[in-house]
Design goal:
With about 260 residues, the chain is mainly alpha-helical. It has 10 helices and 5 strands, in the order αααααβββαββαααα. The strands form 2 sheets. The protein has a 3-stranded antiparallel beta sheet, with no helix packed on it. A two-stranded antiparallel ribbon has the order 4-5. A hairpin with a 2-residue loop joins strand 4 and strand 5. It is globular, with a radius of gyration of 18 Å.
Length: about 260
């Protein structure tokens, strides 16, 4: 019931309007009382619906010991810092729909705040990956070439299957990060890196499945691709996080067990 209410809200509104609707639906209360349920649900639905709201601020602020409802500077790829405003009209260089703009370097965030933000962004990118996969799958079922639906072509099936495997794997790492004793943030770091890689894999494979129509501004794919690139850059992108994880493991001299298989 809650998931359907949230999906309906995200389908009807975005940005500051959705921020207000989520507040009315009890987002701040859910974040305080049921964060392990609220964060995956809200952020995954944001990815699936293509909507956006400045709720990443709330997740990071809560773990930093501050009240939700405000904003703070967040690290971005390339050594930049940005603020995700709680209003409209401030575009980013990648996704003009998001009210994100660059700011001078902010204060270093507590480890727990960074980890929670990374997990939230991971769920958002998993949702975006699923949205891209759904678009490509439907196109493969509808598109006919040489008298056959292209969903019957092995190359198409392989791309869709590889996308699904990447998304499911990323979702599994997010569950592990939420359940593990992640004192040094390694599990959350790897979870966001996996989610970013899954979203980029989805963008690449789904673009190939959709062909020319996927390049057009009229098709929804480009929206999810740009959104994923922006989200990947927040709190460390896939490439930087992968290198950071590798350096941490080399410094330790061993790889800790993060999940019981």
């Amino acid at each position: 019931m809650l998931a359907q209410s949230l999906r309906t809200a995200m389908t009807a509104a975005s940005g500051a309007k959705l921020d207000a609707v989520l507040s009315d639906l009890g987002w701040h209360d859910m974040l305080d009382e049921l964060p392990d349920v609220a964060i995956p649900l809200v952020f995954r639905l944001l990815g699936e619906t293509g909507a956006h709201a400045p709720v990443l601020n709330d997740v990071v602020l809560r773990e930093a010991g501050a009240a939700p409802g405000g904003t703070l500077a967040l690290p971005f790829a390339g050594g930049c810092w940005v603020v995700w405003e709680r209003g409209e009209g401030v575009g980013s260089a990648i996704d003009e729909a998001l009210p994100i703009h660059r700011v001078p370097q902010g204060d270093l965030l507590p480890r727990a705040a960074v980890d929670a933000g990374r997990r939230a962004l991971g769920w958002w990118m998993v949702g975006a990956g699923r949205a891209m996969l759904a678009l490509a799958r439907q196109h493969a079922l509808d598109r006919v070439q040489f008298g056959r639906r292209i969903s019957s072509f092995q190359a198409i099936r392989h791309r869709l299957a590889e996308t699904l495997v990447a998304i499911e794997g990323a979702e599994a790492t997010l569950h592990v990060a939420a359940d593990s004793d992640d004192h040094d943030g390694l599990a959350s770091l790897l979870a966001k890196a996996a989610a970013g890689q899954a979203a980029l894999t989805a963008a690449r494979h789904c673009q190939q499945v959709l062909g020319g129509i996927g390049f057009t501004a009229e098709h929804a794919l480009h929206h999810h691709v740009k959104r994923s690139l922006t989200l990947d850059g927040l709190l460390g992108n896939t490439r930087d996080l992968t290198r950071e994880a590798g350096k941490a493991l080399v410094d330790r001299g061993f790889a800790p067990r993060l999940a019981e298989l």
